């Protein structure tokens, strides 16, 4: 297991590691973490707690996810890791020709066109049915109460909410967007920190999902409302698309790094990008984190991994190569040869920002969950189905309208997906869940956090506290202000186009839970947001 004796590192000064032995929930919002913990206290397990937390996050952090989100999970139960892919496909009635005939030269970012089948409600029901101990009505009860009775808005959420309200007021003028303003900005602006927000439509929808094990969302009245709104405003999603959707249980993929197995969901998710990058840097011996060589090699590795990921990854039914080939030691060795002392110029597309929530849970029985849920780009499509509180994702935006592209739009196809949960094991034992949300920052965050823990022996909190970098495109790299100046200067001399971020920035938001050899849990939460660990 991990070298706990070396768990002292200067970055741990921001927060301390949280320890517990009966249960733990780590996520980006205190109220959501407490929702998960309350379900544990009622006799639920880590799976129940994960779903309770995820549902609560749709209420308290609508700036990043919603009922109309997609979701992925890695679940450790009885000595085995299970993968759940609950990202939905494109509508059966959509096509490249139809989108182009509607006047688009590329997939639009907002509106009904980029909306694919939302997978989150089905993920909640599937996880609880397969591995949970409580009925979905009990598991979703804390989220329903938060929506019905109201919650005080957290500072980071308030900033994002206000920024979105201002931007959407300038951008959205069609009737199809009125549901968003009626739900999230009735006064034309977002709430201030501490303002109490009630989302009663949201509460009624969560109640219907709970009472029907999510079928109301895919076959009942909610599905009919989604269908009607799409038809009215030129969308392609239909009741039949919703009714035919089911989450997929998949075999997680992994690479071995420093004696630990690092696990991700296979494509259509981009977790394979993190694994390819780890494979590349596994050929180096890192002795000190704060050296320009460490930063340079990690940055170059992520560039190469993204170049391959953007070229090959899509719905696995349409991929031209296998995950096994992309994760082979031989392929990693060939890519590693391209890394020199000068910054590379790979050719993936420019990487946009995103909005996602991540959570990790563990219980005293040994169960652990790594769960991620996202609308994409903050509030997603900007579409909220009137009277339901259902804010829909815009995952179809990542499709290409080039018919020769591997991720070309097609009916019933899953697109390249950015959200990725992570998990660590050693031998036959679970170490624990980890994740860093934030669009195309996610594989970069996974690489840095895993390296922090396994190369530099940081505890979970220190691994999250440490300053991060983000490769944007070309040779453009953004560094957090905590990166030492001499490293930034040397990277610039090596050809990197270095930018120092303003306060905040988009460096992802992560959570980590590790099970120690004595069975206790050690957790770290993100200092860049309203992160919280609820422990029992």
TrEMBL record:
InterPro entries: GGT-like_enzyme, GGT_lsub, GGT_ssub_C, Ntn_hydrolases_N. SUPFAM superfamilies: N-terminal nucleophile aminohydrolases (Ntn hydrolases) (SSF56235). The keyword Lyase does not apply. It holds the Pfam family G_glu_transpept. Keywords: Transferase. One of its GO terms (molecular function) is transferase activity. This is Gamma-glutamyltransferase.
